[in-house]
Design brief:
Structural class: alpha/beta
CATH topology of the largest domain: Rossmann fold
Number of domains: 2
CATH architecture of the largest domain: 3-Layer(aba) Sandwich
Number of helices: 9
Order of helices and strands: EHEEEHHEHEEHEEEHEEHEHH
Oligomer: single chain
Radius of gyration: 19 Å
Helix content: 25-40%
Largest sheet: 7 strands, parallel
Strand content: 15-25%
Number of strands: 13
CATH class of the largest domain: Alpha Beta
Distance between the termini: 43 Å
Bound molecules: uridine-5'-diphosphate
CATH superfamily of the largest domain: NAD(P)-binding Rossmann-like Domain
Strand order of the largest sheet: 3-2-1-4-5-6-11
Length: 316
């Protein structure tokens, strides 16, 4: 297949690029490099089946030749990023999805949308099945991301229904691993770096809020299976292993052998979902998928990567 991956120089996009190339497909990675980085695809320079195009997908997308699939992964994805880039976040979810769907229609390509557990907002149902409609504050700090992704899902379904485009929607829960941006402000990069530097781990609020963390290889496998399935309805892909943020801080400290204390910060608590855990019955049933990598194993892959990045920058 010939595959276009928008956001292909990002954390998830670059791992997906690696997977599709390793399966023998041709990959075009497209990225405007606002939050993505060529560091993530530098190892692919000169690869005969890989092309990189620097482009902002909120503008008309031109790709030469046939395309069999488009994976739309372009978007700022961390709360700090979308607070700093609110308009770009809305634009890429709305205009970017429209452009990418238009391209899919033009090329007769299958389209897969990277959606998010944020469509469930601060969920009042726990764990969250795909049938839950969510509890989102459109004008809160996360609204720019949550509503853009909700709009993107609606747009994807409309292209499926009215234009007959073959579409897929993956709702991605918190995912971590090598190539996360050091400064993206999310809990995994923050805690690992703080622990490695023996600085205090900054737990926002009282740390009783929960998240369920999935290692990136599990996400890639889920997306790969979804693309080749016939499932048009949204599918949650995440690891149901749920931890409070306080517990997560303790795990990171233990696994890094750090001397760091834990401090509570009254930061970013507004609109911070209190709980989050995927119900993955649909993925289990329809894709035969479930996560394979426990948190400790995934962190054992991720911590050394962050250590190396910090050493390379002279920060360790
Ligand atoms: N968080 C924290 N300390 C940090 C960064 C994040 O306590 O240094 C908390 C944050 O308030 C949230 C959880 O960790 O409750 C996950 O945050 P993240 O930004 O990783 O992603 P989210 O799931 O909120 O989109």
């Amino acid at each position: 297949m010939r595959v276009l991956i928008t956001g292909g120089a990002g954390f998830l996009g670059s791992h997906l690029t690696d997977r599709f190339l390793s399966e023998g497909h041709d990959v075009i990675a497209m990225d405007n490099l606002i939050t993505g980085s060529t560091d993530n695809i530098a190892h692919l320079a000169g690869h005969p089946h890989f092309t990189f195009i620097k482009h902002d997908v909120t503008n008309y997308i031109y790709v030469d030749g046939p395309l069999d699939a488009i994976l739309h992964f372009a978007s700022p994805a961390s709360p700090i990023d979308y607070l700093e880039l609110p308009i770009q976040t809305l634009k890429v979810g709305a205009l970017g999805t429209h452009k990418a769907l238009g391209l899919a229609k033009d090329k007769g390509a299958r389209f897969l949308l990277a959606s998010t557990s944020e469509v469930y907002g601060d969920p009042q149902v726990h764990p969250q099945p795909e049938t839950y409609y969510g509890y989102v504050n459109p004008v809160g700090p996360r609204g720019v991301y949550d509503e853009a992704k909700r709009f993107a899902e609606a747009m994807t379904m409309a292209y499926h229904t009215y234009h007959g485009i073959d579409t897929r929607i993956v709702r991605i829960f918190n995912t971590y691993g090598p190539r996360m941006r050091l400064r993206d402000g999310r809990v995994v990069p923050n805690f690992i770096q703080q622990a490695l530097k023996h600085e205090p781990l900054t737990v926002y609020g009282d740390g009783s809020q929960t998240r369920s963390f999935q290692y990136v290889s599990d996400l890639v496998e889920g997306v790969y299976r979804l693309l080749f399935s016939e499932v048009v309805d949204p599918v949650n892909i995440g690891n149901p292993g749920e931890f409070t943020i306080r517990e997560f801080a303790e795990i990171v400290i233990a696994l890094t052998g750090s001397q760091s204390p834990i401090v509570n910060r009254d930061l970013r608590t507004r609109d911070d979902p209190q709980v989050r855990q995927p119900d993955i019955s649909r993925a289990r049933q329809l894709l035969g998928w479930e996560p394979q990598v426990p948190l400790a194993d995934g962190l054992a892959q991720t911590i050394p990567w962050f250590r190396e990045q910090l050493q390379r920058r002279g920060e360790l």
